[in-house]
Design a protein that fits this description.
By secondary structure, the chain is mainly alpha-helical. The protein has 4 helices and 2 strands, in the order H-H-H-E-E-H. A two-stranded antiparallel sheet has the order 1-2. The radius of gyration is 14 Å and the shape is globular.
């Protein structure tokens, strides 16, 4: 990963850790994105709902790359996505970079 990309990632991580008062990993950031996209604020979630929130986040951050499209939100407010194309077979480091890029793009609209 190039130096500028990593610098942007470190800046975002520092801001998120400041805003959310603690260390965050990719999964924690995805959880935050999922909660944000659900739009119901802080609440308790079941284990299955937490998994769904991660799914919502992944679909949300990969939608701009053309992998998913938001279809609608159901009566409970949960977003539902359509798969537009399969995810490519990437090595671990490439998967991580794609996720980080999606997260940077997502928060680039907020910060």
């Amino acid at each position: 990963m190039d130096e500028e990309f990593e610098k942007l990632w470190r800046v975002l991580m520092a801001q998120l850790e400041k805003d959310f008062d603690g260390d965050l990993d990719i999964q924690g950031i995805l959880f935050l994105i999922g909660v944000q996209e659900l739009g119901k604020g802080k609440q308790s979630f079941s284990k299955d709902q937490k998994i769904e929130l991660l799914h919502v986040a992944i679909c949300t951050i990969l939608a701009p790359f053309g992998y998913y499209k938001l279809l609608h939100s159901d009566q409970d407010g949960w977003p539902h996505f359509e798969t537009l194309k399969p995810l490519p077979h990437l090595k671990s480091g490439e998967q991580l970079k794609l996720m980080k890029q999606g997260i940077l793009d997502y928060f680039g609209e907020i910060y």
